[in-house]
Design goal:
- With 592 residues, the protein is of the alpha+beta class.
- It has 13 helices and 28 strands.
- The strands form eight sheets. The chain has an eight-stranded antiparallel sheet, with helices on one face. It has a six-stranded antiparallel sheet with strand order 1-2-3-8-15-13, with no helix packed on it. Strands 19-20-21 form a three-stranded antiparallel sheet, with no helix packed on it.
- The protein is elongated, with a radius of gyration of 26 Å.
Protein backbone atom coordinates (compact mmCIF):
# COMPACT_ATOMS: atom_id res chain seq x y z
CA UNK A 1 0.00 0.00 0.00
CA UNK A 2 1.08 3.57 -0.68
CA UNK A 3 2.50 4.99 2.55
CA UNK A 4 2.27 8.72 1.87
CA UNK A 5 -0.66 9.86 -0.31
CA UNK A 6 0.64 12.52 -2.73
CA UNK A 7 -0.87 15.97 -3.12
CA UNK A 8 -2.17 18.65 -0.73
CA UNK A 9 -4.04 17.26 2.26
CA UNK A 10 -7.51 18.56 3.14
CA UNK A 11 -10.35 17.87 5.53
CA UNK A 12 -13.35 16.03 4.08
CA UNK A 13 -15.48 18.08 6.47
CA UNK A 14 -14.58 21.07 4.32
CA UNK A 15 -13.99 19.65 0.84
CA UNK A 16 -15.69 16.50 -0.49
CA UNK A 17 -13.57 13.73 -1.99
CA UNK A 18 -14.49 13.24 -5.64
CA UNK A 19 -13.09 13.15 -9.15
CA UNK A 20 -13.48 14.97 -12.45
CA UNK A 21 -16.70 13.91 -14.17
CA UNK A 22 -18.33 12.11 -11.25
CA UNK A 23 -21.85 12.86 -10.02
CA UNK A 24 -21.05 11.55 -6.53
CA UNK A 25 -18.58 12.26 -3.78
CA UNK A 26 -17.49 10.71 -0.49
CA UNK A 27 -18.07 13.03 2.45
CA UNK A 28 -19.61 13.32 5.92
CA UNK A 29 -21.71 16.25 4.61
CA UNK A 30 -25.07 14.64 3.84
CA UNK A 31 -27.33 17.73 3.58
CA UNK A 32 -27.15 21.50 4.06
CA UNK A 33 -25.04 22.15 7.17
CA UNK A 34 -25.55 18.49 8.20
CA UNK A 35 -22.54 16.35 9.12
CA UNK A 36 -22.74 12.60 9.74
CA UNK A 37 -20.36 10.58 11.90
CA UNK A 38 -19.42 8.31 9.01
CA UNK A 39 -18.40 9.09 5.45
CA UNK A 40 -21.16 8.62 2.89
CA UNK A 41 -21.38 8.14 -0.82
CA UNK A 42 -23.41 11.25 -1.73
CA UNK A 43 -24.97 11.53 -5.19
CA UNK A 44 -25.97 14.79 -6.90
CA UNK A 45 -28.31 13.28 -9.48
CA UNK A 46 -31.90 14.41 -8.85
CA UNK A 47 -30.60 16.57 -6.01
CA UNK A 48 -28.16 15.94 -3.18
CA UNK A 49 -28.75 12.52 -1.62
CA UNK A 50 -26.67 10.47 0.80
CA UNK A 51 -27.01 6.92 -0.54
CA UNK A 52 -24.48 4.67 1.17
CA UNK A 53 -22.78 4.81 4.56
CA UNK A 54 -19.17 3.59 4.69
CA UNK A 55 -18.25 2.27 8.13
CA UNK A 56 -14.75 1.11 9.15
CA UNK A 57 -15.04 -2.14 11.12
CA UNK A 58 -12.76 -4.13 13.38
CA UNK A 59 -11.22 -7.39 12.19
CA UNK A 60 -13.83 -10.01 11.40
CA UNK A 61 -16.40 -7.34 10.60
CA UNK A 62 -17.20 -6.61 14.21
CA UNK A 63 -17.91 -3.28 15.84
CA UNK A 64 -17.21 0.09 14.28
CA UNK A 65 -13.49 0.88 14.45
CA UNK A 66 -12.12 4.23 15.56
CA UNK A 67 -10.17 5.80 12.71
CA UNK A 68 -8.96 9.14 11.48
CA UNK A 69 -9.65 10.21 7.91
CA UNK A 70 -7.01 11.69 5.62
CA UNK A 71 -7.64 13.00 2.12
CA UNK A 72 -5.54 14.16 -0.79
CA UNK A 73 -6.82 14.87 -4.32
CA UNK A 74 -6.64 11.24 -5.44
CA UNK A 75 -6.64 9.07 -2.30
CA UNK A 76 -8.94 8.88 0.71
CA UNK A 77 -7.79 6.92 3.76
CA UNK A 78 -9.19 5.71 7.08
CA UNK A 79 -6.36 4.89 9.52
CA UNK A 80 -6.72 3.18 12.89
CA UNK A 81 -4.46 1.41 15.39
CA UNK A 82 -5.16 -1.97 13.77
CA UNK A 83 -5.12 -1.13 10.08
CA UNK A 84 -6.40 1.12 7.33
CA UNK A 85 -8.75 1.44 4.37
CA UNK A 86 -7.96 3.23 1.10
CA UNK A 87 -10.44 4.57 -1.47
CA UNK A 88 -9.73 5.87 -4.99
CA UNK A 89 -11.80 6.59 -8.08
CA UNK A 90 -11.32 4.07 -10.90
CA UNK A 91 -13.62 6.12 -13.14
CA UNK A 92 -16.23 8.87 -12.67
CA UNK A 93 -18.87 6.27 -11.73
CA UNK A 94 -16.73 3.72 -9.83
CA UNK A 95 -14.68 3.77 -6.65
CA UNK A 96 -12.33 1.07 -5.46
CA UNK A 97 -11.71 0.31 -1.80
CA UNK A 98 -9.09 -1.90 -0.19
CA UNK A 99 -8.32 -2.65 3.42
CA UNK A 100 -5.74 -4.25 5.65
CA UNK A 101 -6.44 -5.10 9.28
CA UNK A 102 -9.84 -3.41 9.17
CA UNK A 103 -13.10 -4.40 7.55
CA UNK A 104 -15.76 -2.17 6.03
CA UNK A 105 -19.52 -1.94 6.20
CA UNK A 106 -21.38 -0.67 3.14
CA UNK A 107 -24.87 0.23 4.32
CA UNK A 108 -27.87 2.05 2.93
CA UNK A 109 -28.05 5.56 4.39
CA UNK A 110 -31.85 5.40 4.48
CA UNK A 111 -33.29 3.02 7.08
CA UNK A 112 -36.83 2.93 5.70
CA UNK A 113 -38.00 1.77 2.29
CA UNK A 114 -41.44 2.90 1.07
CA UNK A 115 -43.08 2.53 -2.37
CA UNK A 116 -41.69 5.99 -3.23
CA UNK A 117 -38.53 6.55 -1.17
CA UNK A 118 -35.53 4.84 0.34
CA UNK A 119 -33.10 2.20 -0.88
CA UNK A 120 -33.80 -1.43 -1.82
CA UNK A 121 -31.03 -4.02 -1.38
CA UNK A 122 -30.53 -7.45 -2.91
CA UNK A 123 -27.94 -9.93 -4.19
CA UNK A 124 -27.66 -10.00 -7.98
CA UNK A 125 -26.98 -13.63 -9.05
CA UNK A 126 -25.94 -12.56 -12.57
CA UNK A 127 -23.03 -10.40 -11.43
CA UNK A 128 -22.56 -12.14 -8.07
CA UNK A 129 -22.68 -8.72 -6.46
CA UNK A 130 -24.86 -6.81 -4.02
CA UNK A 131 -26.99 -3.98 -5.39
CA UNK A 132 -28.64 -0.97 -3.76
CA UNK A 133 -31.34 0.84 -5.77
CA UNK A 134 -32.17 4.40 -4.70
CA UNK A 135 -35.55 6.04 -5.27
CA UNK A 136 -34.03 9.47 -4.60
CA UNK A 137 -31.31 9.34 -7.25
CA UNK A 138 -33.01 6.88 -9.61
CA UNK A 139 -29.71 5.00 -9.85
CA UNK A 140 -28.22 1.69 -8.74
CA UNK A 141 -25.11 1.14 -6.64
CA UNK A 142 -23.40 -2.22 -7.10
CA UNK A 143 -20.86 -3.61 -4.64
CA UNK A 144 -18.54 -6.27 -6.05
CA UNK A 145 -16.17 -8.01 -3.65
CA UNK A 146 -12.91 -8.55 -5.54
CA UNK A 147 -10.94 -10.07 -2.69
CA UNK A 148 -11.87 -10.91 0.87
CA UNK A 149 -14.94 -12.31 2.61
CA UNK A 150 -18.50 -11.11 2.90
CA UNK A 151 -18.79 -11.51 6.65
CA UNK A 152 -22.49 -10.79 6.75
CA UNK A 153 -25.38 -9.17 4.94
CA UNK A 154 -28.50 -7.63 6.35
CA UNK A 155 -31.80 -6.54 4.87
CA UNK A 156 -31.48 -8.55 1.64
CA UNK A 157 -34.83 -7.97 -0.19
CA UNK A 158 -36.27 -6.44 2.98
CA UNK A 159 -39.21 -4.03 2.80
CA UNK A 160 -40.12 -1.32 5.30
CA UNK A 161 -37.66 -0.46 8.05
CA UNK A 162 -34.40 -2.41 8.19
CA UNK A 163 -30.65 -2.09 8.12
CA UNK A 164 -29.50 -2.96 4.61
CA UNK A 165 -25.97 -3.73 3.51
CA UNK A 166 -22.95 -5.93 3.83
CA UNK A 167 -19.74 -6.21 5.80
CA UNK A 168 -16.49 -7.20 4.09
CA UNK A 169 -13.40 -8.49 5.91
CA UNK A 170 -9.98 -9.71 4.94
CA UNK A 171 -8.64 -13.02 3.79
CA UNK A 172 -6.02 -14.88 5.81
CA UNK A 173 -3.57 -12.01 5.35
CA UNK A 174 -6.19 -9.51 6.54
CA UNK A 175 -6.60 -7.77 3.16
CA UNK A 176 -9.67 -7.25 0.97
CA UNK A 177 -10.79 -5.19 -2.03
CA UNK A 178 -14.13 -4.17 -3.50
CA UNK A 179 -15.64 -1.89 -6.14
CA UNK A 180 -18.74 0.32 -5.87
CA UNK A 181 -20.39 1.48 -9.11
CA UNK A 182 -23.14 4.03 -9.74
CA UNK A 183 -25.12 3.15 -12.87
CA UNK A 184 -28.62 3.13 -14.34
CA UNK A 185 -30.30 -0.23 -15.02
CA UNK A 186 -27.81 -2.88 -16.07
CA UNK A 187 -24.17 -3.38 -16.97
CA UNK A 188 -21.80 -6.33 -17.31
CA UNK A 189 -20.22 -7.74 -14.15
CA UNK A 190 -17.32 -5.64 -12.88
CA UNK A 191 -13.95 -6.60 -14.33
CA UNK A 192 -11.27 -7.10 -15.23
CA UNK A 193 -10.02 -5.32 -12.13
CA UNK A 194 -6.76 -3.38 -12.44
CA UNK A 195 -4.55 -3.34 -9.38
CA UNK A 196 -5.53 -0.74 -6.79
CA UNK A 197 -2.17 1.01 -7.02
CA UNK A 198 -2.67 1.37 -10.77
CA UNK A 199 -6.11 2.90 -10.15
CA UNK A 200 -4.64 5.39 -7.70
CA UNK A 201 -1.72 6.21 -10.02
CA UNK A 202 -4.07 6.86 -12.95
CA UNK A 203 -6.14 9.21 -10.80
CA UNK A 204 -3.00 11.03 -9.70
CA UNK A 205 -1.80 11.43 -13.29
CA UNK A 206 -5.19 12.82 -14.34
CA UNK A 207 -5.21 15.39 -11.55
CA UNK A 208 -1.58 16.32 -12.16
CA UNK A 209 -2.33 16.99 -15.84
CA UNK A 210 -5.20 19.25 -14.81
CA UNK A 211 -3.30 21.28 -12.24
CA UNK A 212 -0.32 21.61 -14.58
CA UNK A 213 -2.70 22.99 -17.20
CA UNK A 214 -4.61 25.50 -15.07
CA UNK A 215 -1.80 26.57 -12.73
CA UNK A 216 1.57 26.03 -14.43
CA UNK A 217 2.75 29.24 -12.76
CA UNK A 218 2.26 27.94 -9.18
CA UNK A 219 5.10 28.23 -6.70
CA UNK A 220 5.72 28.60 -3.00
CA UNK A 221 4.32 32.13 -3.36
CA UNK A 222 0.92 30.66 -4.32
CA UNK A 223 0.62 27.79 -1.83
CA UNK A 224 -3.11 27.17 -2.27
CA UNK A 225 -3.03 26.79 -6.06
CA UNK A 226 -3.07 22.97 -6.14
CA UNK A 227 -5.94 22.73 -3.68
CA UNK A 228 -7.88 25.42 -5.56
CA UNK A 229 -7.39 23.40 -8.75
CA UNK A 230 -8.63 20.29 -6.94
CA UNK A 231 -11.81 22.08 -5.85
CA UNK A 232 -12.57 22.88 -9.51
CA UNK A 233 -11.45 19.49 -10.85
CA UNK A 234 -13.39 17.45 -8.32
CA UNK A 235 -16.59 19.52 -8.67
CA UNK A 236 -16.78 18.89 -12.42
CA UNK A 237 -19.51 16.52 -13.63
CA UNK A 238 -20.01 14.89 -17.02
CA UNK A 239 -23.09 15.82 -19.11
CA UNK A 240 -26.28 14.23 -17.73
CA UNK A 241 -29.91 15.17 -17.35
CA UNK A 242 -30.36 18.89 -17.98
CA UNK A 243 -26.63 19.56 -17.76
CA UNK A 244 -25.80 19.79 -21.46
CA UNK A 245 -22.01 20.02 -21.18
CA UNK A 246 -19.22 19.07 -18.79
CA UNK A 247 -20.01 21.38 -15.89
CA UNK A 248 -18.22 22.70 -12.84
CA UNK A 249 -20.84 22.71 -10.10
CA UNK A 250 -20.54 25.42 -7.51
CA UNK A 251 -19.91 22.64 -5.01
CA UNK A 252 -20.40 18.96 -4.38
CA UNK A 253 -21.86 19.92 -1.04
CA UNK A 254 -25.39 21.33 -1.02
CA UNK A 255 -24.68 24.20 -3.46
CA UNK A 256 -24.62 21.62 -6.26
CA UNK A 257 -25.87 23.82 -9.11
CA UNK A 258 -24.57 26.11 -11.83
CA UNK A 259 -25.83 29.63 -11.14
CA UNK A 260 -25.87 32.04 -14.06
CA UNK A 261 -23.06 34.29 -12.96
CA UNK A 262 -20.94 31.96 -10.85
CA UNK A 263 -20.04 30.02 -14.01
CA UNK A 264 -18.26 33.06 -15.49
CA UNK A 265 -15.50 33.00 -12.86
CA UNK A 266 -14.91 29.27 -13.32
CA UNK A 267 -14.70 29.79 -17.08
CA UNK A 268 -12.06 32.50 -16.64
CA UNK A 269 -9.93 30.39 -14.30
CA UNK A 270 -9.97 27.47 -16.74
CA UNK A 271 -9.46 29.46 -19.94
CA UNK A 272 -5.70 29.28 -20.36
CA UNK A 273 -5.22 25.60 -19.53
CA UNK A 274 -8.56 23.97 -20.40
CA UNK A 275 -10.07 26.18 -23.11
CA UNK A 276 -12.81 23.77 -24.24
CA UNK A 277 -13.96 23.21 -20.66
CA UNK A 278 -13.86 26.98 -20.09
CA UNK A 279 -16.11 27.66 -23.07
CA UNK A 280 -18.47 24.93 -21.87
CA UNK A 281 -18.74 26.71 -18.52
CA UNK A 282 -19.49 30.02 -20.18
CA UNK A 283 -22.13 28.67 -22.56
CA UNK A 284 -23.96 26.19 -20.33
CA UNK A 285 -26.60 28.63 -18.94
CA UNK A 286 -27.05 30.06 -22.45
CA UNK A 287 -28.10 26.57 -23.58
CA UNK A 288 -31.23 27.22 -21.49
CA UNK A 289 -31.82 30.84 -22.58
CA UNK A 290 -35.58 31.42 -22.79
CA UNK A 291 -37.63 32.89 -25.65
CA UNK A 292 -37.31 36.38 -24.20
CA UNK A 293 -33.52 36.19 -24.02
CA UNK A 294 -33.28 35.69 -20.25
CA UNK A 295 -30.84 33.26 -18.70
CA UNK A 296 -32.10 30.89 -16.01
CA UNK A 297 -31.28 31.53 -12.40
CA UNK A 298 -29.65 28.10 -12.10
CA UNK A 299 -29.17 24.76 -13.79
CA UNK A 300 -28.63 21.37 -12.22
CA UNK A 301 -29.09 17.71 -13.10
CA UNK A 302 -32.89 17.65 -12.97
CA UNK A 303 -33.97 21.27 -12.61
CA UNK A 304 -33.72 24.59 -14.43
CA UNK A 305 -35.08 27.58 -12.49
CA UNK A 306 -36.31 30.79 -14.11
CA UNK A 307 -37.97 32.55 -11.16
CA UNK A 308 -35.00 34.94 -10.89
CA UNK A 309 -32.12 35.88 -13.17
CA UNK A 310 -28.55 36.85 -12.40
CA UNK A 311 -26.61 40.05 -13.19
CA UNK A 312 -25.38 40.56 -16.78
CA UNK A 313 -21.66 40.24 -16.13
CA UNK A 314 -21.40 38.05 -19.23
CA UNK A 315 -20.10 40.75 -21.57
CA UNK A 316 -17.36 41.61 -19.08
CA UNK A 317 -16.61 37.91 -18.67
CA UNK A 318 -16.57 37.05 -22.38
CA UNK A 319 -14.24 39.91 -23.18
CA UNK A 320 -11.76 38.61 -20.62
CA UNK A 321 -12.39 34.98 -21.54
CA UNK A 322 -11.63 35.23 -25.23
CA UNK A 323 -8.43 37.13 -24.51
CA UNK A 324 -7.31 34.44 -22.06
CA UNK A 325 -7.86 31.54 -24.47
CA UNK A 326 -4.58 30.18 -25.86
CA UNK A 327 -6.03 30.29 -29.40
CA UNK A 328 -8.35 33.13 -30.45
CA UNK A 329 -11.90 31.84 -30.90
CA UNK A 330 -13.06 31.26 -34.44
CA UNK A 331 -15.82 33.07 -36.27
CA UNK A 332 -18.49 30.48 -35.42
CA UNK A 333 -17.76 30.80 -31.69
CA UNK A 334 -17.76 34.61 -31.85
CA UNK A 335 -21.03 34.64 -33.80
CA UNK A 336 -22.72 32.32 -31.32
CA UNK A 337 -21.49 34.36 -28.37
CA UNK A 338 -22.63 37.58 -30.05
CA UNK A 339 -26.14 36.28 -30.74
CA UNK A 340 -26.56 34.94 -27.21
CA UNK A 341 -25.20 38.09 -25.58
CA UNK A 342 -27.39 40.28 -27.78
CA UNK A 343 -30.54 38.40 -26.76
CA UNK A 344 -29.50 38.56 -23.08
CA UNK A 345 -28.90 42.32 -23.35
CA UNK A 346 -32.16 42.93 -25.20
CA UNK A 347 -33.97 41.19 -22.33
CA UNK A 348 -32.69 43.83 -19.93
CA UNK A 349 -33.41 46.71 -22.33
CA UNK A 350 -37.00 45.61 -22.94
CA UNK A 351 -38.39 43.48 -20.10
CA UNK A 352 -36.43 45.33 -17.39
CA UNK A 353 -36.77 49.01 -18.35
CA UNK A 354 -39.84 50.90 -17.21
CA UNK A 355 -41.43 53.06 -19.95
CA UNK A 356 -40.04 56.32 -18.59
CA UNK A 357 -36.58 54.97 -17.73
CA UNK A 358 -33.44 54.51 -19.80
CA UNK A 359 -31.90 52.46 -16.97
CA UNK A 360 -32.80 48.83 -16.26
CA UNK A 361 -33.94 47.48 -12.90
CA UNK A 362 -33.74 44.38 -10.78
CA UNK A 363 -36.98 42.86 -9.47
CA UNK A 364 -35.38 41.41 -6.34
CA UNK A 365 -31.98 41.26 -4.71
CA UNK A 366 -31.62 37.70 -6.02
CA UNK A 367 -31.47 39.11 -9.58
CA UNK A 368 -28.33 41.01 -8.64
CA UNK A 369 -26.62 37.94 -7.20
CA UNK A 370 -26.34 39.91 -3.92
CA UNK A 371 -29.56 38.42 -2.56
CA UNK A 372 -30.04 40.32 0.71
CA UNK A 373 -27.68 43.29 0.22
CA UNK A 374 -28.77 46.43 2.07
CA UNK A 375 -29.23 48.26 -1.23
CA UNK A 376 -32.53 46.37 -1.45
CA UNK A 377 -33.80 47.20 2.04
CA UNK A 378 -36.02 50.20 1.12
CA UNK A 379 -37.51 48.53 -1.98
CA UNK A 380 -36.87 45.41 -4.02
CA UNK A 381 -37.75 46.55 -7.59
CA UNK A 382 -34.77 48.84 -7.95
CA UNK A 383 -32.67 50.68 -10.54
CA UNK A 384 -29.08 50.23 -9.41
CA UNK A 385 -25.79 51.59 -10.68
CA UNK A 386 -24.07 48.20 -10.79
CA UNK A 387 -26.66 46.89 -13.26
CA UNK A 388 -26.14 49.87 -15.56
CA UNK A 389 -22.37 49.40 -15.39
CA UNK A 390 -22.58 45.72 -16.32
CA UNK A 391 -24.88 46.49 -19.23
CA UNK A 392 -22.54 49.24 -20.46
CA UNK A 393 -19.65 46.78 -20.49
CA UNK A 394 -21.84 44.18 -22.16
CA UNK A 395 -22.87 46.57 -24.91
CA UNK A 396 -19.26 47.58 -25.46
CA UNK A 397 -18.32 43.92 -25.81
CA UNK A 398 -21.17 43.44 -28.29
CA UNK A 399 -19.83 46.38 -30.28
CA UNK A 400 -16.35 44.80 -30.33
CA UNK A 401 -17.77 41.44 -31.39
CA UNK A 402 -19.91 43.04 -34.12
CA UNK A 403 -16.86 44.86 -35.42
CA UNK A 404 -14.82 41.63 -35.53
CA UNK A 405 -17.70 39.88 -37.31
CA UNK A 406 -17.87 42.61 -39.96
CA UNK A 407 -21.17 44.08 -38.79
CA UNK A 408 -20.40 47.82 -38.61
CA UNK A 409 -24.00 49.02 -38.26
CA UNK A 410 -24.56 46.76 -35.25
CA UNK A 411 -21.24 47.85 -33.76
CA UNK A 412 -22.25 51.50 -34.06
CA UNK A 413 -25.66 50.80 -32.54
CA UNK A 414 -24.20 49.06 -29.49
CA UNK A 415 -21.54 51.74 -29.00
CA UNK A 416 -24.19 54.47 -29.08
CA UNK A 417 -26.38 52.54 -26.64
CA UNK A 418 -23.45 52.13 -24.23
CA UNK A 419 -22.63 55.85 -24.38
CA UNK A 420 -26.27 56.76 -23.83
CA UNK A 421 -26.60 54.48 -20.81
CA UNK A 422 -23.35 55.72 -19.25
CA UNK A 423 -24.53 59.32 -19.66
CA UNK A 424 -27.83 58.42 -18.03
CA UNK A 425 -26.06 56.56 -15.20
CA UNK A 426 -23.89 59.55 -14.34
CA UNK A 427 -26.66 62.11 -14.81
CA UNK A 428 -29.33 60.27 -12.83
CA UNK A 429 -27.54 58.22 -10.16
CA UNK A 430 -24.20 59.96 -9.49
CA UNK A 431 -24.37 62.67 -6.79
CA UNK A 432 -20.80 63.92 -7.06
CA UNK A 433 -19.41 61.53 -4.44
CA UNK A 434 -21.57 58.39 -4.60
CA UNK A 435 -24.06 56.40 -6.65
CA UNK A 436 -27.69 56.15 -5.59
CA UNK A 437 -30.28 53.42 -6.06
CA UNK A 438 -33.77 54.37 -7.23
CA UNK A 439 -37.12 52.66 -6.80
CA UNK A 440 -38.30 51.63 -10.26
CA UNK A 441 -41.92 52.53 -9.50
CA UNK A 442 -41.61 55.20 -6.81
CA UNK A 443 -38.62 57.19 -8.07
CA UNK A 444 -37.35 57.41 -4.49
CA UNK A 445 -33.56 57.41 -4.21
CA UNK A 446 -31.21 56.24 -1.47
CA UNK A 447 -27.70 55.00 -0.79
CA UNK A 448 -26.41 52.28 1.50
CA UNK A 449 -23.26 51.22 3.31
CA UNK A 450 -23.06 48.19 1.03
CA UNK A 451 -20.29 47.43 -1.44
CA UNK A 452 -22.89 46.86 -4.16
CA UNK A 453 -23.32 50.64 -4.50
CA UNK A 454 -19.63 50.86 -5.47
CA UNK A 455 -19.65 48.17 -8.15
CA UNK A 456 -19.72 50.67 -11.06
CA UNK A 457 -15.95 50.67 -10.52
CA UNK A 458 -16.07 47.72 -12.98
CA UNK A 459 -16.30 50.35 -15.72
CA UNK A 460 -12.60 50.92 -15.09
CA UNK A 461 -11.01 52.97 -17.86
CA UNK A 462 -14.42 54.16 -19.06
CA UNK A 463 -15.04 56.11 -15.83
CA UNK A 464 -14.20 59.79 -15.42
CA UNK A 465 -11.12 59.99 -13.23
CA UNK A 466 -12.91 61.88 -10.45
CA UNK A 467 -15.65 59.23 -10.27
CA UNK A 468 -13.12 56.39 -10.18
CA UNK A 469 -11.20 58.22 -7.44
CA UNK A 470 -14.29 58.70 -5.29
CA UNK A 471 -15.23 55.03 -5.70
CA UNK A 472 -11.70 53.94 -4.80
CA UNK A 473 -11.81 56.03 -1.62
CA UNK A 474 -15.12 54.48 -0.60
CA UNK A 475 -13.92 50.96 -1.45
CA UNK A 476 -11.02 51.43 0.97
CA UNK A 477 -13.60 51.87 3.74
CA UNK A 478 -14.71 48.26 3.11
CA UNK A 479 -11.22 46.81 3.58
CA UNK A 480 -10.60 44.55 6.55
CA UNK A 481 -7.41 42.56 7.21
CA UNK A 482 -8.98 39.78 5.11
CA UNK A 483 -10.45 41.68 2.18
CA UNK A 484 -13.57 43.53 1.10
CA UNK A 485 -16.53 43.39 3.46
CA UNK A 486 -19.79 43.54 1.50
CA UNK A 487 -21.23 45.85 4.16
CA UNK A 488 -19.05 48.35 6.00
CA UNK A 489 -18.22 46.83 9.35
CA UNK A 490 -19.29 50.07 11.07
CA UNK A 491 -22.78 49.87 9.55
CA UNK A 492 -25.68 49.05 11.90
CA UNK A 493 -26.75 46.49 9.29
CA UNK A 494 -23.43 44.62 9.29
CA UNK A 495 -23.75 40.94 10.20
CA UNK A 496 -20.75 38.63 10.59
CA UNK A 497 -22.60 35.76 8.90
CA UNK A 498 -25.09 37.96 7.07
CA UNK A 499 -24.56 36.57 3.57
CA UNK A 500 -24.27 39.78 1.48
CA UNK A 501 -24.54 42.04 4.54
CA UNK A 502 -20.91 41.80 5.63
CA UNK A 503 -18.99 38.68 4.61
CA UNK A 504 -16.22 38.68 2.01
CA UNK A 505 -17.09 37.12 -1.35
CA UNK A 506 -14.88 36.09 -4.27
CA UNK A 507 -16.93 37.55 -7.16
CA UNK A 508 -17.11 41.02 -5.64
CA UNK A 509 -13.37 40.84 -4.97
CA UNK A 510 -12.48 39.84 -8.53
CA UNK A 511 -14.78 42.41 -10.15
CA UNK A 512 -13.63 45.29 -7.94
CA UNK A 513 -9.95 44.37 -8.30
CA UNK A 514 -10.28 44.27 -12.08
CA UNK A 515 -12.14 47.58 -12.27
CA UNK A 516 -9.68 49.38 -10.00
CA UNK A 517 -6.74 48.10 -11.99
CA UNK A 518 -8.26 49.22 -15.30
CA UNK A 519 -9.07 52.62 -13.75
CA UNK A 520 -5.40 53.04 -12.81
CA UNK A 521 -5.71 52.36 -9.05
CA UNK A 522 -3.11 49.60 -9.12
CA UNK A 523 -1.89 49.86 -5.52
CA UNK A 524 -5.38 49.42 -4.04
CA UNK A 525 -6.13 46.62 -6.49
CA UNK A 526 -2.98 44.77 -5.46
CA UNK A 527 -3.77 45.26 -1.77
CA UNK A 528 -7.23 43.73 -2.25
CA UNK A 529 -5.75 40.84 -4.23
CA UNK A 530 -3.08 40.14 -1.61
CA UNK A 531 -5.58 40.10 1.26
CA UNK A 532 -7.95 37.77 -0.56
CA UNK A 533 -5.15 35.39 -1.58
CA UNK A 534 -3.91 35.23 2.01
CA UNK A 535 -7.49 34.62 3.18
CA UNK A 536 -7.84 31.59 0.91
CA UNK A 537 -4.39 30.29 1.81
CA UNK A 538 -5.33 30.36 5.48
CA UNK A 539 -9.06 29.61 5.50
CA UNK A 540 -9.74 27.68 2.30
CA UNK A 541 -12.39 28.16 -0.37
CA UNK A 542 -15.64 28.75 1.46
CA UNK A 543 -18.71 30.28 -0.12
CA UNK A 544 -17.93 33.45 1.85
CA UNK A 545 -15.88 34.54 4.86
CA UNK A 546 -16.33 36.44 8.11
CA UNK A 547 -14.87 39.85 7.27
CA UNK A 548 -13.36 40.36 10.74
CA UNK A 549 -12.01 36.89 11.54
CA UNK A 550 -11.53 35.31 8.12
CA UNK A 551 -13.48 32.21 9.14
CA UNK A 552 -15.03 30.34 6.22
CA UNK A 553 -18.84 30.44 6.18
CA UNK A 554 -21.66 28.42 4.61
CA UNK A 555 -20.60 25.91 1.93
CA UNK A 556 -16.90 25.27 2.53
CA UNK A 557 -15.88 24.05 -0.96
CA UNK A 558 -17.10 26.69 -3.41
CA UNK A 559 -15.67 26.68 -6.91
CA UNK A 560 -15.98 30.39 -7.70
CA UNK A 561 -13.88 31.08 -4.61
CA UNK A 562 -11.21 28.67 -5.84
CA UNK A 563 -11.47 30.24 -9.30
CA UNK A 564 -11.09 33.72 -7.84
CA UNK A 565 -7.96 32.63 -6.02
CA UNK A 566 -6.48 31.11 -9.18
CA UNK A 567 -7.19 34.25 -11.21
CA UNK A 568 -5.63 36.57 -8.64
CA UNK A 569 -2.71 34.24 -7.92
CA UNK A 570 -1.89 33.90 -11.61
CA UNK A 571 -1.98 37.68 -12.06
CA UNK A 572 0.32 38.04 -9.06
CA UNK A 573 2.72 35.41 -10.42
CA UNK A 574 2.71 37.03 -13.88
CA UNK A 575 1.71 40.69 -13.53
CA UNK A 576 0.17 42.10 -16.71
CA UNK A 577 2.23 44.69 -18.49
CA UNK A 578 1.33 48.20 -17.47
CA UNK A 579 -1.25 49.66 -19.81
CA UNK A 580 -1.20 53.15 -21.29
CA UNK A 581 -3.18 54.54 -18.38
CA UNK A 582 -1.97 55.04 -14.88
CA UNK A 583 -4.25 56.75 -12.41
CA UNK A 584 -3.87 59.88 -14.48
CA UNK A 585 -4.64 58.01 -17.69
CA UNK A 586 -8.22 57.02 -16.84
CA UNK A 587 -10.58 58.47 -19.37
CA UNK A 588 -12.21 61.68 -18.27
CA UNK A 589 -14.73 62.31 -21.02
CA UNK A 590 -18.22 61.26 -19.99
CA UNK A 591 -19.59 58.46 -22.14
CA UNK A 592 -16.21 57.29 -23.47
Amino acid sequence: MTDVPPGPAFSVHDIPFSTHGSWFDVSPVVAEKTYAEDLHLVSHQNGMHAVLRLVPLGPGGGDRADTRVEATPTLLRWTGPRGRIDLAYASPDTVRLRGSGLGVGVLAAAHTLTPFSGTYFFHDPVADAHVFTSYETGRRYRVTVLRGTTARTSGDQALGGAERGLAVTGEADGTWELAIEEYETARPPYGPAPAFDEVADRALRAFTRFVDAVAPWRSSATPAAELAAYVLWSATVRPAGLVTRPAVLMSKHWMDKVWSWDHCFNALALARGCPELALDQYHLPFDHQDAGGALPDSVTHSEVLYNFVKPPIHGWAYGRLRRRLPTPPGRAELAQAYDRLARWTDFWLTARRAPASRLAHYEHGNDSGWDNATTFDPERVVVTADLAAFLILQMRELADLADELGRPEQAARWTAAAVEMQTELLDRLWTGDRFLARGAATGTTWSSAGLLDLMPVVLGEHLPAEVAGSLADRIQCHLTPYGLATERTTSPHYRADGYWRGPIWAPATVLVEDGLRRAGHHRLAEDISARFRALCETHGFAENFDALTGTGLRDRAYTWTAAGYLLLAEAHAHPPEAGPSGASGARTVRGH
